[in-house]
Amino acid sequence: MSELNYRLAEASDQPTLEAWDALPHVAANIPDDAWDWAEGLRQRPHWREQWIAELEGRPICFMQVIDPAEEESGYWQPIGSGHRAIDIWIGPEDALGQGHGSAMMAWMLRRCFAASDVHTVLIDPLESNVRAHRFYQRLGFSPIGRRRLEGLDCLIHALDRTEAIRRKYASASA
Ligand SMILES: CC(C)(COP(=O)(O)OP(=O)(O)OC[C@H]1O[C@@H](n2cnc3c(N)ncnc32)[C@H](O)[C@@H]1OP(=O)(O)O)[C@@H](O)C(=O)NCCC(=O)NCCS
Question: Does domain 4-166 have CATH number 3.40.50.720?
Fold first, then answer.
């Protein structure tokens, strides 16, 4: 597989991300009213990182990681410290299903668990997104319960540090 490059998302990514929002596989699985690119890409709050993965110079994926205890809308509340929550999607249809998502999640999980206080990473796929459930479970996530978040039925998945060490996303000494 070609090597992926990761960089922080920038204001100039707005047209790309808006075009991806309109693609059927993104529109069906990512509620777009949660994403205000014009505002969001211009701010870098301490509790959030937004990343773009590129394949041979072409953006193919967006990833966001937040500290859900610090996130300002209270989306994940009530929640304690030591969590991270990830959102991920691939834009170009021809980049789906080739292992890029797995590679990017492994990269992001290593990044999350590199912080010694992080004990659990969360994901909130729609309950209807059964392909994504399979994808996350193959990476080591377990479903921990259904939850209605902002009017949408989600099946929350979690991966804790013990599983992260087993999967080599984290080292036992961290
Ligand atoms: C989920 C996603 C990030 C996985 O990345 P990927 O590079 O396609 O995945 P990989 O090639 O590493 O692994 C393949 C698995 O990804 C999942 N997948 C592939 N295409 C998918 C699609 N269109 N929608 C949802 N999941 C998909 C499946 O579980 C697939 O396994 P399967 O062949 O057994 O069904 C990517 O498919 C995607 O962006 N899907 C649409 C948006 C989405 O659902 N994002 C997750 C929201 S929580």
Answer: no
